[in-house]
Amino acid sequence: YKYFISTKVVMLGESSVGKSSLVQQFMLNRFMPGFQEPTVSPHFVKKIQTIYKLGQQKVQFNIWDTAGQEKYRCLTTMYFRDANVAIIVYDVTNKQSLECVDYWVDEVNRSNANDYFIVLVGNKCDLRKFRQVTMEEGQAKAKQIGAQIYYECSASNEKSVQNLFQEIGIYLYKL
Ligand code: GTP
Ligand code: MG
């Protein structure tokens, strides 16, 4: 009977889709629009989270937040290597960021020796008026890349981000 799982998570995706903002919301319940600087080098945080639907079971999320900007990417691949979960983020207000998802899938497939699963996340759902990618398009992409979980959220919405990690936790206990 498992009650504790430690898992390595990498945050991947184009620059400015909101990877660091999602991590900050998960860790600190905080969103500061406009204050998030582009990530330059991979950044590690960890959090032990109770998975509420399961009762007392907990997951230790060991999260590597990576840099999306092309000039910093060469540093990123070594962090894929033994990841258990790849969270690939796109921005629902930026169609091009969805097209970039394939690049990250290829990279993680190439560099990761572990068994891992993919979580495709459409972020910035709060910006309804600027949406360029529908939920159906996101779901189709998730299917195409073989993502195990598809999720839409906003780094500005605490509940949506906490729920994302709850879903991942539930999935980990099902494996
Ligand atoms: P890199 O580190 O360069 O790869 O970018 P990133 O993916 O970490 O993006 P970051 O978290 O730095 O966010 C980029 C910008 O988008 C910042 O100005 C954030 O405040 C904003 N942002 C992130 N998530 C959201 C969201 O859900 N809604 C809105 N409205 N803005 C967001
Ligand atoms: Mg960042």
Shape: globular
Q: Structural class of the helix and strand makeup?
A: alpha/beta
Number of strands: 6
Mean of residue pLDDT values: 94
Low-pLDDT runs of 5+ residues are none
The largest sheet is: 6 strands, mixed
How much β-strand is present in the residues?
15-25%
What descriptive keywords fit this protein?
globular; 175 residues; six-stranded mixed sheet; alpha/beta; binds guanosine-5'-triphosphate
Question: Could you describe the 3D structure shown?
Answer:
It comes from Stylonychia lemnae. GO terms for molecular function: GTP binding; GTPase activity. The protein is an alpha/beta fold and 175 residues long. Helices cover 31% and strands 25% of the residues. The chain contains 5 helices and 6 strands, in the order E-H-E-E-E-H-H-E-H-E-H. It has a 6-stranded mixed beta sheet, with helices on both faces. Strand 5, helix 4 (135-145) and strand 6 (149-152) form a beta-alpha-beta unit. It is globular and about 45 Å long. The two termini are 13 Å apart. The protein binds guanosine-5'-triphosphate and magnesium ion. Magnesium ion binds at residues 19-20, 38-39, 65.
List the helices and strands and how they pair.
Layout: E1 4-12, H1 19-28, E2 43-50, E3 58-65, E4 85-91, H2 95-99, H3 101-111, E5 117-123, H4 135-145, E6 149-152, H5 158-174
Parallel strand pairs: 1-3, 1-4, 4-5, 5-6
Antiparallel strand pairs: 2-3
Can you give me a brief rundown of this structure?
The chain contains five helices and six strands; from the N terminus they run βαβββααβαβα. The protein starts with a strand and ends with a helix.
